[in-house]
Amino acid sequence: ETSKVVVGGTVLKVSGLSLAPAAIERGKTGVALLRIDLQTGQSVVDVGALKLTQKGTDPAYCTTTPGACDLVSLSLYKETDGNGAFGVPGDVEIGKVIHSSQPGGSSNFGLGVATINVTVDGLPRLRVNTAVTTLYVVANFGAAAALFDKVGISLDLFGDIKGAGGLVSVAAVPDVTKYP
């Protein structure tokens, strides 16, 4: 016998909180920019990737002047120590993407869009259930970033939450009261 399937879809609640400091030094690493809380109304949803959008100063500048990237990499950390604040050690990195213009960079990060694939316990997905799952988006800034640039990160659309394996969308419907 199979498990019972929810007809009409699992509701995924998404909320966020900016953790970005007012200013940052060039070359700074491990800077928490955004907290994302995920929770289902019932059942589970597997998240495979998050597509984040860079806001602020024109991110295309980085492709013509790689040493001047504001953001050289972005990571996703899962809250695991239960203190409600980002910290290493304590919270676990579940995904990372390096800007395409940087050594070891990925085509998943360029022109202001970063898709971070997740891996949890060796599996290419983050399982979200009725308990709140907290994620932190953490940035490493370029050592030669232009002074006075402004940069931020956003999860713009519900569709930017990808399913397991990076599929087009999660098998869930948005909660109209908790929407990015």
Class by SSE composition = mainly beta
Shape call: globular
Taking Cα atoms only, what radius of gyration do you get, to the nearest Å? Answer: 17 Å
Q: How are strands sequenced across the largest beta sheet?
A: 5-4-9-2-1-12
- What low-confidence regions span 5 or more consecutive residues with pLDDT below 50? none
Can you summarize the main beta sheet? 6 strands, mixed
Tally of extended strands?
12
Number of helices: 1
Average pLDDT reading:
85
What's the helix-strand series?
A: EEEHEEEEEEEEE
The first-to-last residue Cα distance is 37 Å
- What is the percentage of strand-forming residues? 35-45%
Helical content (DSSP H or I, runs of 4+):
under 10%
Describe, in plain words, how this protein is organized in 3D.
- With 180 residues, the protein is mostly beta strands.
- Helix content is 2%, strand content 42%.
- It contains one helix and twelve strands, in the order βββαβββββββββ.
- It has one helix at residues 61-64; strands at 10-18, 31-40, 45-56, 71-78, 92-98, 109-110, 113-117, 126-128, 133-141, 151-154, 161-163, 172-174.
SSE inventory with pairings:
Layout: E1 10-18, E2 31-40, E3 45-56, H1 61-64, E4 71-78, E5 92-98, E6 109-110, E7 113-117, E8 126-128, E9 133-141, E10 151-154, E11 161-163, E12 172-174
Which descriptors apply to this entry?
180 residues, mainly beta, six-stranded mixed beta sheet, six-stranded antiparallel beta sheet, 2% helix, 42% strand, globular
